[in-house]
Amino acid sequence: MPQRIVAGNWKMHGSRQFLAGFLASLTGDVLAKAGCEVLLFPPATLLPLLSAQAPDLGIGLGIQTVHPESQGAFTGEIAAEMAADVGATWTLVGHSERRQIFGESDADVALRALAARRAGLRTMLCVGESLAERQRGDAEAVVTRQLDAVLEALGDDLATGGIAYEPVWAIGTGETASPEMAQAMHAMIRGVLRRRSERLAEMPILYGGSVKPANAAALFAEVDIDGALVGGASLDPAAFLAIIRAMETHGNP
Ligand code: PGA
User: Fold this and answer.
1) Ligand 1: residue whose CA is nearest its atom 1
2) What is the pTM of this model?
3) Atom of ligand 1 nearest to the CA of 164
């Protein structure tokens, strides 16, 4: 049975003051008792601050992207080893904003996943088709290509991480894939993983794209949806907690 995960991707949001308020609203050991793994991907500036408190809160920490190299003249970039040094145990790779805005190719994403492995970070590999690709009927081919690029590089080593299916047209738009549509893609992804190994088939497959308290339960009831990668709603502690509770109530046993 795949691990169930609810993860928050804060993108380029958050200050020390925001973080203090966020943590203050997580009363007691509510996350430690969550019944699923809870991860946060804050901006890198907040990682050292959060890592001092995250273990007590039961939160796993990740960085949003890493550079392929471990060090060097790459102004503005952060190495996987540096993220690990300040307490990250996970990294996102291949988020659609990295692919679309920063031009990361499948090959670039694979190099970043290799860097994560080198530094001992677990990888949350994001895949997903654009609206035009879905309308052309290419959604499955695009997602398969994105998966294969990283599976070719890492093979079974990817199994320590997770997959996040995030259709680009659903990210930050308020549009969500219907639970049936998401389930169909998750089952397809599981099939791609299973053709490679049973270990890979056990990876958690998260859905991302406008997940909110109102739609989380229906998504989590689907058999191949093992959690959520939450953007906007993860910045609101009440909404993030409600999504975690929906996982406890409606997630697969
Ligand atoms: P969203 O973002 O929940 O704001 O749509 C999801 C993501 O990009 O991970």
Assistant:
1) 231
2) 0.96
3) 9
Among 80, 46, 41, smallest CA distance to 63 is for 41
CATH of the domain at 185: 3.20.20.70
Element holding 125 (H helix, E strand): strand 122-127
Would you name the residues annotated as active-site residues?
95, 166
The count of domains in the chain is 1
Alpha-carbon distance of 115 to 162, in angstroms, equals: 16
Q: Ligand 1 centre from 9 Cα, in Å?
A: 7
**99 CA distance to ligand 1 centroid (A)?**
14
Q: CA nearest 68: which of 27, 38, 113? A: 113
Q: Which atom of ligand 1 is nearest to the CA of 208?
A: 6
Domain extent, residue 181, equals 5-250
Distance of CA 99 to the CA centre of its chain: 15
Render pLDDT for 161-187 as a digit per residue (tens, 0 to 9). 999 999 999 888 877 889 999 999 999
pLDDT at 174: 79
Segment 106-162, tens digit of pLDDT:
999 999 999 999 999 999 999 999 999 999 999 999 999 999 999 999 999 999 999
pLDDT-based confidence at 51, cuts 50/70/90? very high
For the chain, first and last CA: distance in Å? 9
